[in-house]
């Protein structure tokens, strides 16, 4: 992560952009480098400014946050730019497409200032952040929508313990919570997460969630 985390704020509501800017600029080690009122402007500014993190509202007029995320993450000139998606609703049809488009995670807009700052730092560090309430609702929605009935050849090489860890990640648990649930040490959890990232060629925790959903593992739950 850079010494100072450079943040681009993309939201169609000027009041919210201003609030996010005040929070970011008041946080040591962070600063706002730009603001965008729609997805197209976000892509243009991300290409120009190369921020570390884009706070991306998913629902914007014109080009929405999902399309903007896809443009940013598919452009090699912006390979270092990471996206933290923001949603107003804990059940938002845009969340899953945003993750598939390359977002490194998502938070609710009513997250506490501490949660938002922590999320920005986590994403800037190269990991993913997932709002647990959204994750659980997303899982329920996909489980009833037929999205998870696909074969899962990517999971064949995983150990039983790695599958257990993947299920818990998909349900929004942190490493510390996984450690407590499985009664294993925190370093052991981190080792399993690193192994999952390598075996599944996933860039971060958020992509592990996508893989767990699409493989059906999240729906099936803990392996027996």
UniProtKB/TrEMBL annotation:
Matches recorded under PROSITE patterns: HTH_LUXR_1 (PS00622), HTH_LUXR_2 (PS50043), RESPONSE_REGULATORY (PS50110)
Matches recorded under SUPFAM superfamilies: C-terminal effector domain of the bipartite response regulators, CheY-like
Record's keyword terms, sorted: DNA-binding, Phosphoprotein, Transcription, Transcription regulation
Domain Response regulatory residue range list: 6-124
DNA-binding keyword on record: yes
Lipoprotein among keywords: no
Gene Ontology MF: a single term: DNA binding
UniProt domain HTH luxR-type: residue ranges: 151-216
Modified residues (4-aspartylphosphate): 57
Classification via CDD domains: LuxR_C_like, REC_NarL-like
A Pfam cross-reference name: Response_reg
GO biological process: phosphorelay signal transduction system; regulation of DNA-templated transcription
Protein name, per record: Two-component system response regulator
Species this protein is from: Streptomyces laurentii
Biological classification of the source: Bacteria, Bacillati, Actinomycetota, Actinomycetes, Kitasatosporales
């Amino acid at each position: 992560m850079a010494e100072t985390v450079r943040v681009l704020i993309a939201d169609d509501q000027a009041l919210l952009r201003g609030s996010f800017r005040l929070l970011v600029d008041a946080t040591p080690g962070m600063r706002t480098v730009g603001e965008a009122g729609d997805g197209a402007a976000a892509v243009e500014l991300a290409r120009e400014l190369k921020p570390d993190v884009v706070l991306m509202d998913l629902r914007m007029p014109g080009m929405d946050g999902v399309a903007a995320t896809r443009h940013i993450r598919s452009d090699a000139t912006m390979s270092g730019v990471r996206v933290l998606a923001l949603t107003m609703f804990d059940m938002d049809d845009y969340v899953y497409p945003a993750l598939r488009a390359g977002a490194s995670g998502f938070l609710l807009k009513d997250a506490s200032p501490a949660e938002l700052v922590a999320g920005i730092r986590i994403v800037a560090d190269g990991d993913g952040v997932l709002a647990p309430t959204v994750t659980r609702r997303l899982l329920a929605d996909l489980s009833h929508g037929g999205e998870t009935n696909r074969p899962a050849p990517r999971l064949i090489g995983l150990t039983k313990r790695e599958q257990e860890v993947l299920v818990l990640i998909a349900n929004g648990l942190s490493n510390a919570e996984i450690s407590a649930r499985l009664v294993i040490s925190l370093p052991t959890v981190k080792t399993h997460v690193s192994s999952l990232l390598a075996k599944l060629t996933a860039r971060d925790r958020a992509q592990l969630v996508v893989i767990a959903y699409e493989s059906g593992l999240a729906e099936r739950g803990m392996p027996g």
